[in-house]
Amino acid sequence: MREKNPIETLIDLMARLPGLGPRSARRAVLHLIRKRGALLAPLAEAMAQVAATARECLNCGNVSTGDVCPICADEARANGILCVVEDVADLWAMERAQVFRGRYHVLGGTLSALDGIGPDELRIPRLKDRLAAERVTEVILALNATIDGQTTAHYIADQLEGRVALSSLAQGVPIGGELDYLDDGTITAALNARKRF
Amino acid sequence: MREKNPIETLIDLMARLPGLGPRSARRAVLHLIRKRGALLAPLAEAMAQVAATARECLNCGNVSTGDVCPICADEARANGILCVVEDVADLWAMERAQVFRGRYHVLGGTLSALDGIGPDELRIPRLKDRLAAERVTEVILALNATIDGQTTAHYIADQLEGRVALSSLAQGVPIGGELDYLDDGTITAALNARKRF
Ligand SMILES: [Zn+2]
Ligand SMILES: [Zn+2]
User: Fold this and answer.
1) What is the ipTM score, two decimals?
2) Residues of A in Cβ contact (< 8 Å) with B54
3) Are residues A94 and A29 in the same domain?
4) Buried b / exposed e across B2-32, counting CB within 10 Å, b at 16+?
5) CA distance, residue A33 to nearest chain B CA (Å)
6) Keywords assigned by UniProt (chains A, B) (predicted)?
7) Which ligand is nearest to the CA of B64?
């Protein structure tokens, strides 16, 4: 069999992105080749830079280009409030709403008996360590309003009971809804009306 | 304003791909960061390579990593039949069908009075040059069944009249197609071109 040329290799790799199938990958690659100066070359450069520098923040689990992410490095955000989210997409959704000024803790998923994911597979031990280290007074459980999300929220609430104030996002997050799908206004309203867990 | 970090830059560039909006770009970038060894680094490398090498085949307009594409370079495909298509995506679609063994000529669009696209904006002069140079005996006009595609096919047919045999793809019901989903024009064409059972 003949060797694949670089264009075919690029199409195959692009087709592995979420939301792109083979057909949209081909369209995207043709678009990139047409705009190879304005888009393809900068994209190659940005990808190489992210590949070389991206890692998980050692403190909170956010993606970062340094050992500690900009939010954890920002002393102005050490206000004693931690917002616990399932994944980085949720953190980004909270940040876009521009209403929360504390820090985050990214679990990296939810507890799931079915998938064999227990507390140690998530970033739960690290969450406990942070309570003292960062003088945390309130933990906001901003998990998705799904069964797994709420199970995880209850588990964490049990673990932290009596050590900090616990709250969760207000009703207003639709049943079965995921933070990353919500508009900024809904997130703002839910955060402002958060209630004690 | 603070400078954008490489991850934000990557999201912005990804959001400019056809079929990806800001949200799917964010999802794609998180996926890439999670798979930075298996997917992000190879993708960066493939993009850099395509950015450095991709160009238009000087002969047919196909995308290529050399001055002449593999199809034009393949002497076995010099069978005197040229298939004229609108763009490279159409050429790829024909190649996937693995049924055409001649060469292609990619116009780079269709004639459009509205958009000010005349014959010289397309690869039509070059098509005429190829007829003699490659001893072409048949030109298949494989343009899209749109008004602009068919206008362009008629224009080229007028230009080449008497110099080569001209043909176009048959119109009819697609394989697996249901009549109820087809537009009236397709049904009319299929009925007019009906053949004995
Ligand atoms: Zn962090
Ligand atoms: Zn060619």
Assistant:
1) 0.83
2) 6-7, 33, 36, 40
3) no
4) eeebbbebbbebbbebeebeeebbbbbbbbb
5) 7
6) DNA damage, DNA recombination, DNA repair, Metal-binding, Zinc, Zinc-finger
7) 2
- Where does the pLDDT of residue A3 fall: very low under 50, low under 70, confident under 90, or very high at 90 and above? low
- Domain encompassing residue A81: 73-168
Q: Which two tokens stand for residue B101?
A: 């063994």
SS3 B103: strand
| Reported confidence tier of residue B127, pLDDT bands at 50, 70, 90 | very high
CA trace torsion B65, B69, B71, B74 (10° rounding): -100
Q: Is B107 in the same domain as B162?
A: yes
For residues A48 and A90, membership in a common domain is answered with no
- Comparing A176-180, B136-140, B143-147, B185-189, which segment has the lowest mean pLDDT? A176-180
A158 in a structural domain: yes
We report the CATH number of the domain holding residue B123 as 3.40.1360.10
What is the mean pLDDT of the segment spanning A126-148? 92
pTM: 0.82
Whether residue B20 is contained in a domain is answered as: yes
Residue A174 lies in a domain: no
Find the CB nearest B89 among A27, A39, A88: A27
Q: Per the structure block, which two tokens stand in for B163? A: 């110099």
